[in-house]
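Hi support team,

I submitted a single chain yesterday and got back a structure, but I'm not sure I'm reading the token output correctly. Could someone confirm the output below corresponds to the sequence I sent? I've pasted both exactly as they appear in my results page.

Thanks,
R.
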Amino acid sequence: VLLPFSLESGSIHAFLGPFAGQNKKRFGNTLLPEDSSTLPFIHSPEIELTLFGDTTKIFRAFPPVKDRHSSWLTRVEASMHSEWKETGIFEFIQLAKFDLHLFDPQMLISAIFFWNRETRAFEVPCGFFFPPLLDIAAITGLAPIGDRFHPDAFEEEISIKEISISWDKKTYLAFITAHLGQPGTPVSTSEHIAFLMYWLSACVFCTPSLQVPKYYYILAQTLHSKKKICLSKLLLASLNTCLDEASESLFRESGPRNLSGPLWLLQLWLNAIFEKKLCLLSTPTPICELEGARLTTLTPWKRLVDNFAKYVGAILSFTEFT
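Hi R., thanks for writing in. Yes, this is the structure output for that exact sequence:
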């Protein structure tokens, strides 16, 4: 349980409890065996809320604003929309047209404090829970079925040497500028794969370097070839991994830095979870049937440190599954 409190000086702190120690028999976890080689779920006696001081830097790997890639997306979609529908990624790519770059740091960090790296789930009064695959399908429009993707399992059908990609232009804006085709010209295989690599790097898996790495080439080529892979499972696994890293990062002496991965998906899922409990207000619903598009409008705009305690209280109020 996280308990925020303020001192007479006005500074805000928090403490966690119970701890593994002399009260171990009373408060010990009866579900999971004790393991002295790992940190207990709760292990920090104090949390400095100064970590909210520069949240933009902490979450700088969030997807870029939609204006940066909208013209490229519109151009490629005009030529490839039927292929995207056949591959099953058309609706998912539509999310890049909405405000995925908006986030509420207090909501995200408060949830991450309840992430248990041992069970790989959020631990709340009613038990353990984690975004199920059907929630991911509802938010993204991705099918919950398909072939498992592993880079070694798919051959490089189109040699990377045959694709004219400027590997020296890796930052997002430079990559777009280097690979955006001229108006009126057809979208080539090279441009389509380059677009998919950018989209996977910036809008889906959100790389910490804010660059387009080569290791997304195989996945981009696989989607270009219209292979029926289960992208929803890959996305969910990536979210799981980034929550592990974010949870560990919160307890470093230097504080969390550059939290990356699909935390935008966590934001949208938390919006859905908290919508009724916190009466989150939506702006006019965008013209899109995808649930994820509607959820982008629920992200709170006001970034108040006081909201941290409000979100913690909301999480602790989940005393039963609904």
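A quick pointer for reading it: The chain has 13 helices and five strands. Let us know if anything else looks off.

Best,
Support desk
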